[in-house]
User: Fold this.
Amino acid sequence: MSTKRGVEVSIAAADAAKLARVEVIAAYPITPQTHIVEHLSEIVANGELDALYVNVESEHSAMSACCGASAAGARTFTSTSSQGMELMHEILFIASGLRLPIVMAAVNRALSAPLSIWGDHSDVMAARDTGWIMLFCENGQEVVDSTIMAFKIAEDRRVLLPVMVNLDGFSLSHVIEPIEFPSQEEVDKFLPPYNPLYTLHPDKPVTMGAYGMPELYTEAKYAQEMAIRQSKDAIIEIMDDFGKRFGRYYKPVETYNTDNTDTVFIALGSINENIKTAIDELKKEGKELGLISLRLFRPFPEEELAFALKGKKKVAVIERVMPGGAANGPLFNEFSALAQARGLKIQLENYILGLGGRDVNPEEFLEIFENMSSPKKETKKNEKNYIVIGVRA
Amino acid sequence: MAKPMEEYKWHELNVGCVIEEVGNAMEYKTGDWRSSKPVWNDDKCVKCGLCWLFCPDAAVYQKDNGLYTTNLDYCKGCGICAHECKPGAITMVEEER
Amino acid sequence: MIKYFMKGLERYIEHPEIEFATSGHRACQGCAEILALRLALKVFGKDTVLAMATGCMEIISTPLPTTSWRLPWIHVAFENAAAVASGIESGLKILMNKGKIAQKDIHVVAIAGDGGTSDIGLQSLSGALERGHKFTYICVDNEAYMNTGIQRSSSTPYGAMTTTSPPGKKSIGQSTQKKNMPKIAAAHNIPYVATACPSYAYDLFAKIKKASMVNGPSYIHILSVCPTGWRIPSDQAIRYGRLAVQTGVFPLYEVENGKYRITHNPETLKPVSEYIQGQGRFRHLTDDIVAKIQERVDKDWEELKFLCSAK
Assistant:
């Protein structure tokens, strides 16, 4: 029987890993992920979780040790944020290239410089093309459910790829929410023990991580790319199965109030709840705004997005990372490409907000909506393709 | 049997490019790297085994009669065996090409 | 089938005829590094898992789709052999604890070059040693970044020529002394640290055997003579390894639970000039540089003897 309780989302994430019966955790503390690893250490120490917690000396070693443990056949979990994710960056590519089903809870935090311990998406966006499957969570329930699903997705023989479960630092990781935890028996039925395709064991020796000459590298990467593209089918199937067993259905792309309007926002993560509040506010005033919430970011769910965008005219792509010199933010670029490729006649606008933990309240979303409906005629000298909401100029 | 690299289609590679045929590097015959090869004088050989011990390529092997020789498929002709042979039973002889 | 074996091999090696590092690898002619591994792996035996760093040994042995290794083997990156080995050791341990795989003594061995150990790999090595994993770390030291074309590392000896420490009007070659990795490993208070050289094969066997039986971390530093990088003829690797030991440039010793013991003790050391002579990488050295080297070798040798005498 599942139990519902009020708990900090970080603790919930750790408890989800416990329900998934993780076997090796190799992690390095970094704000705001610390509560996850602290709780995991605690439950390993008191015997609640039969696992080994490896106190590695850096995030680079954390991901390296995870590669070793996963290759040896253990179910492996880690967590990091921001600078830690950057430090392990080279190993992220290797984990996906070696097709190791590691699960990582990424507590999204802004990147230095300047140093910021608060949440935004700069860390995960910098890692978006590392070949990891990526899920985004809006609330604590989704964090728990996504973590449990993540293991099933990662270890599925059709997938065999590492999975990153993203949750916003502080605004999601450190809040207390009512969360329903499935029972251990129910999770065991959903998630059987890890049965690796290859392991490092003397009974059947293999070589993992050989190097590819130009004659073979392309084929090796093509195989990996096809794997992440085709993983979407397994992901949808597993989300469906989860829904049947636990009553909460998830989809790669979710929509809110998009039927009645041709004006939508697209966003990732916990700000979606604020956007939904704004949508409800607007409804009271008789105005309609929709939200397309991207749950599955990698592999990029083109079909589902194209379907959700059908008939939509005005789309605000909202993101929490600076373009770093690109013409637009990374999400906008992906949606532009999608619109172009599918011949979607939509007017895309790019809004950047919530950087470095800056609060975004429903009023600001109402402002964006007003701007979209009746844009001010501005011809500033340094015309950009995006608007940074709330920057004091 | 590993195919030549250029003959692999992408779907023929194992997941994660894992190599299951351990030791299949033996299909690559390093013997043609040689410019000289070791030749044993069986009369001088005392069967000490140092040539076998010190061969980086595991090419030197012991024959059934206890004397030693090298596998010319792999011998790179480095000359370590000849240099280390205490009784001087091994001479490096230039390869004819 | 080998019938008559070298005397005493069976003390260390269960199946001397088995090659875990097969022929067909692309190491240079006369490479003593692959020889060191070939010999070490015979002692570990088949119940071994290798975590190797990027470097000569990884490159010469695993060009897709072939591999020279007959043992389970993984390569992840350059600086993390020790971290990967930590993960493997933990993974195998928990799987055995949970009864998912059979209880078995499986040796976990991390192998990296001097670059991947004393430079970029130092952090992950230190972490793994401190955490006390049951594994053996082997540093195969050819005294430079040989795989990428002979660039210097912190293990390159004083005065040596490398492409990034070239001698010239303003340089004598490597201007710093070789980093003492065994000392750093011993400072972690691990059960077993040793230096070894394939030129002294039985000494190497004994040390690998000891390392394999340690219930905790062990560190073996193997001098791997590199004819290509040191500019010596391809048949000289064993000879120069021997000279390195006989001149005291690379003493053979072990530190067992903090107790130092020289395992090959030449009563008097040969002069270092005998070792330096004939190595192209030292060709440019003047007499006073050689004298400096001799001075340092003598000092280190005295210090080592002093450590051995400590109770």
Notes: The mean pLDDT of chain B is 95. Chain B has two helices and four strands. Residues 35 and 77 of chain B are 7 Å apart (CA to CA).
